[in-house]
Amino acid sequence: MNKNNRTGSHLFFIEFIIVLFFFLIVSTVCLRLFANAHGITQRADALSHAQAAAASVAAVAEDALSGAEAQTENERTEPIDNPEILLKTIAEYLPGASVSALPEDSSGQEGLVIFYDRDFQTCTADEARYLLSATVGEDGHEETLDISVTDYDHAPVYGLSVTLHRATTRKEALQ
Predict the structure, then answer these.
(1) What's the order of all strands across the beta sheet hosting 98-101?
(2) Residue 79 scores a pLDDT above 50
(3) Which pLDDT does position 58 carry in this prediction?
(4) DSSP at 122
(5) On the chain, which terminus has fewer CB atoms closer than 10 Å, C or N?
(6) pTM (two decimals)
(7) Nearest to 147 by CA among 104, 113, 101
(8) CA–CA distance, 40 with 46 (Å, rounded to integer)
(9) CB-based contacts of 133: which residues, under 8 Å, 6+ apart?
(10) What are the residue ranges of helices labelled H in 71-130?
């Protein structure tokens, strides 16, 4: 009778270990799923904030150009024909924006720079997790405003290229 009790307890112990391993494997899979879901959520949140920041820069650029063009030739104090003036005008309206050499560009090209922390609040370069940079370039006969948002590893998060339309005045059209 003693022998049957020992066999039963050994089988119970083996069954308990098998069930324990099953729960260990299932919990490992669940933890990986939750970790992946958290990473996807963070990337989606960063993409959403980056898109909103890039769209606001594009909207300010559009307003700056249309505001300058809406004025008559006599009222216009600084024409926005120069890309540097356009970038400075945009920087005046956006908090934390400045026109300086782009950090990731070794050629020293100047552009609009805004540093963001992990919550997409403007911050200093030392605290930055994301960088929004905007440059004005030419694509054939059209000028474009290239806006890019990168993370602290310089991996692209979002990019937007806006074609700048400059309406000609009647005087310019007749020349």
Answers:
(1) 98-101, 110-116, 130-139, 142-151, 156-164
(2) no
(3) 92
(4) B
(5) N
(6) 0.72
(7) 113
(8) 10
(9) 102, 103, 104, 111, 112, 113, 114, 147, 148, 150
(10) 83-93
Spatial contact of 149 and 157, defined as CB atoms under 8 Å apart:
yes
Burial class (CB in 10 A: 0-12, 13-18, 19+), 139: exposed
| Residues linked to residue 79 through DSSP beta bridges, in sequence order | none
Which DSSP category does 168 fall into? P
Q: Are strands 110-116 and 98-101 parallel, antiparallel or unpaired?
A: antiparallel
CA-CA distance, 164 to 75, in Å (whole number)? 22
- Hey, where are the domains in the chain? 30-174
Residues 14-25 have a mean pLDDT of 95
Tokens of 146: 């290239």
As a whole number of angstroms, the distance between CA 175 and CA 163 comes to 24
User: Can you state the angle between helices 2-70 and 83-93, rounded to 10 degrees?
Assistant: 120
Record the tokens describing residue 98, joined without a space. Answer: 């400045």
Cα–Cα distance measured from residue 115 to residue 151, given in angstroms and rounded to the nearest whole number: 10
**Residue 125 in contact with residue 103, Cβ under 8 Å?**
yes
Measured distance CA(165)–CA(162) in Å, rounded: 9
Helix, strand, coil shares, percent, the chain, to 5: 50, 25, 30
